[in-house]
Amino acid sequence: MKIDFDGIQALVVIAELGGFNRAAEALHITQTALTRRIQKLEQYLGLKLLNRTTRRVELTTVGREFLPQARSIVQDMTSAVERLKDMSQHATGQIVLACIPSMTTHVLPGLIREYAARYPANRIRLHDGSSDEVRQSVLGGKAELGIAVQGESHPELQEAVLFADPLVFVCRSPHPLEAEKSVRWTDMRDNDLIGVSSFMATRIFMDYQLAKRGIRLQGNYEVQHHATAINLVAAGVGSAILPASTIREGDRPGLRKIALTNPVVKRKVVLLQRREAALSPAAQAFRDLIQQARFEV
Fold first, then answer.
1. Domain of 200?
2. What would the pLDDT profile of 91-100 be if each residue is shown by its tens digit?
């Protein structure tokens, strides 16, 4: 059913201003156009809403009964449109962001603080999960934007590379390698390594890059999340190979973050959104912010 909003608005303005002439001026249309709106509405309803003579215009009995509801329709529509205009002009609203957990350690909190400072009225809902879960959230429309590790491309997803995140060696002092500025992957074979699950995107990427060079590492421990690996290293359980963005030098007393070379392996962190899907003003503002950011890892 098609609602004739123009006709309902015309009826309300005529009733409030008491005539066609002033109503037409208020709506910035001609009296002829205004008359057509009323006639179209009456024809659609099959009811007479206005009695019009050469001297005056008055509502019919049905028109008077309908007027309060008509006012409510116009007021609700006007308020809704004004809210949308405000969202467009000031990027207000809610954003749902899907993100891999490793980005929530250092990278994302700084961006969220800056976003909150710029748009204090906005809400952010964060869905953290694996790269595959992030992709599914964006594809399924549960999140407008996603931050994940670059993987196999999808025809319905648009990807923008945010930064390259090198893998580093993390150990606890005292350790035979703690004084080194960089270490080789082959040096890892004699370490008690805490590995991240082989189902995680970073681990899959690392194993592939090393396999191309004939390097294979086997950890004594396996965890699901980078934060868990950091906690175990801090507790003296072993050492770990982690993305540089997950830990900063000095974050944990006694922990060392050392560059890994031969080869240098970097995962690419990407920003995801659905192709052909328009972002809400709030999400577009966040996208603009993150694309302007400088990432230090």
1. 165-266
2. 578 899 999 9
